[in-house]
Each structure stands twice: as C-alpha cells, then as structure tokens.
UniProtKB/TrEMBL annotation:
Ranges that cross the membrane: 7-26, 32-55, 75-93, 113-131, 152-171
Entry keyword set: Cell membrane, Membrane, Transmembrane, Transmembrane helix, Transport
Protein name listed in UniProt: Protein p34
Family membership: Belongs to the cation diffusion facilitator (CDF) transporter (TC 2.A.4) family.
Pfam families xref list: Cation_efflux (PF01545), ZT_dimer (PF16916)
Organism in which the protein naturally occurs: Amaricoccus macauensis
Domain Cation efflux protein cytoplasmic: 207-284
Length: 295
C-alpha cells in the first residue's frame, strides 16, 4: 500500500472520529450551529471515501483503454467533493432558516463547546498533514481534502465563538445566524475545490515559473542540437506531461540525436517529479527561430 493510499484511508478514520464527536456536541446542546458543523464532517467522511477510491484507481498502470494512465481520476474525486460540500451548505441554510423563525435554547453549552474544540484540534492537525503530504506526493485528491478540512477548522472556531456569544448575550438568534454564515463559507469552499479541479480536467499547463525551469533544463542539456520549440505541458494528477520538438543538424546520425533526447529526458525527470516526456526530433530546415528555446 502506497503512502498516498495510507493517508487517504487514514482520512476516513479521522473523519468518522470527528463526526462522532461533533454529532455528540450537537445532541447535548441542540445548537443549529453545531448541527451545521457536524453535517460538514459527514461530508468530510464521504469525500474521504471518494478520495481513497480515486487515489487507488489513479495508481493503476496504463492499459489498453487508458494508455496515458488513470491520473485524472483524482480530479473527478475533487469535483465530487466540491459538489457534496455545496449540497451540505444548502441543507445547513435550510435548517438555519427554520431555527431563525423559531429560535432554540442551547443546553449544556460547556460540554458541547469542549467537544467541538477537541474535534477542531484533531481536524487542524490532520488537515496540515493532508495538505503537506498531498503536495509532496502531487495528489490533488489529498490536497482538496486537506484544504476543505482547513475551512472546516476555521468555521468550527467561528461556531465555538458564536455560541459562546449567544450564551453570554442571551441572543438565541445568534446560533442559527452563525449556522447560516458557516453554510455560506462552506459554499465558497466547495466552489473553490471545483474550480481548482476543473483546471486539471482541462489539461491546464504548469505555472510560468515551472515552464521557464523546464525550458532552462532543455537548453542546458541539448548540446549538439540547434533549438527546441513548441514546448507544451499539462498536469494530470501526480503526472506532468512535457512534449516539444527538438531540431538537430540534418546530417546528425539517429543514434546521436537519440543520445541528446536521453540526456534531456533524464534531467527533466530529475527536475520535474513524475514527468512523462515526449520529444519529436526534426531536421534543421524545420527550425522556427522564434518563440523557442535556442540551444
């Protein structure tokens, strides 16, 4: 089992634990804000399961029907996570509206707030692990899961503060109003996850800084060639696809051109983790002399 799969599986266990704590906090208090917090954790469990399935499938080797691999499935998982997050937000808004019309008294607030605080600490630690490891492992599913948990932590802290204010001031309407605020924040979080994932599904290129780094590696390791042009990149989960045209002297033996390609490919793989490189060799009459990496 890979490190990515282990972390994804751990997210399910952590999500169930946090959901149980938050649901208990809601049951002992009757707070709509804590209900919204617990419902968000339910979504966390569902998205963690989707992330695990996506990570396992993305690690499957390329086959006849998927010659470029299964890397993009992680983006579908992230889109699903974003959609579920937004559905949860709408359910919370409905509950909050009902409570605004008929405010409820919060019971056992001390115990409820303590439970919510414990759940927030667990989520904060796990979200940090998910984002840091997800970026290192180049896993969009893990990063999306971790970023949502960070949003969950922020809203949970807001819930605790809001409930404390509601108890202190005696304004019962603060509880459902806070739940509505949480729902709006969750809506934004869900949209952001979907937006970021769509970039991967649309074969978004690497950043300008990363592209310049790739061009530099090509230029420094293409001795013997004339130029490289039409350098293109795209991200697909943990894999970065790089392809370009390499122009060599017309009389250069095929074996020499192949050696140059091997040298460039080796250095690119060391520079860009998880890269897959395709190089099209062309004779010197195909040189473009503009908008290219000149070696």
């Amino acid at each position: 089992m890979s490190g990515t799969v282990r972390i994804a599986a751990g997210s399910i266990l952590i999500g169930i634990l946090v959901l149980g704590i938050k649901w208990l906090a809601y049951m002992v208090t009757g707070s709509v804000a804590l209900y919204s917090d617990a419902l968000e954790s339910f979504v966390n469990v569902v998205t963690a399961i989707a992330a695990l399935l996506a990570v396992r499938l993305s690690e499957q080797p390329a086959d006849h029907n998927h010659p470029y691999g299964h890397h993009k499935v992680e983006y579908f998982s992230a889109v699903l996570a974003g959609a579920l997050i937004m559905v949860a937000a709408l359910l919370i808004l409905r509950e909050a509206w009902g409570a605004i019309q008929a405010p409820r008294t919060i019971e056992a607030p001390g115990l409820g707030l303590a439970l919510a605080g414990v759940a927030s600490v667990i989520n904060a630690l796990w979200s940090w692990l998910l984002v840091s490891r997800g970026r290192k492992l180049r896993s969009p599913a893990l990063v999306a899961d971790g970023e949502h948990l960070i949003s969950d932590v922020i809203t949970s802290v807001g819930v605790v503060i809001g409930i404390a204010l509601a108890i202190y001031t005696g304004w019962a309407i603060l509880d459902p109003a806070l739940a509505g605020f949480v729902a709006l924040n969750i809506l934004w979080s869900g949209w952001r996850v979907i937006r970021d994932s769509l970039g991967g599904l649309m074969d978004e290129a690497v950043s300008d800084q990363e592209l310049e780094r790739i061009r530099g590696v090509i230029a420094q390791n293409a001795e013997g060639a004339i130029e490289a042009h039409d350098v293109r990149t795209r991200n697909a989960g943990r894999v970065t696809f790089i392809d370009f045209h390499l122009v060599v002297p017309a009389q250069m033996p095929v074996s020499d051109a192949h050696d140059i390609c091997d040298r460039i490919e080796r250095e690119l793989k060391e520079t860009v983790e998880g890269s897959l490189i395709t190089i099209h060799v062309e004779p010197e009459n195909k040189a473009k002399h503009s908008g290219v990496v000149v070696v």
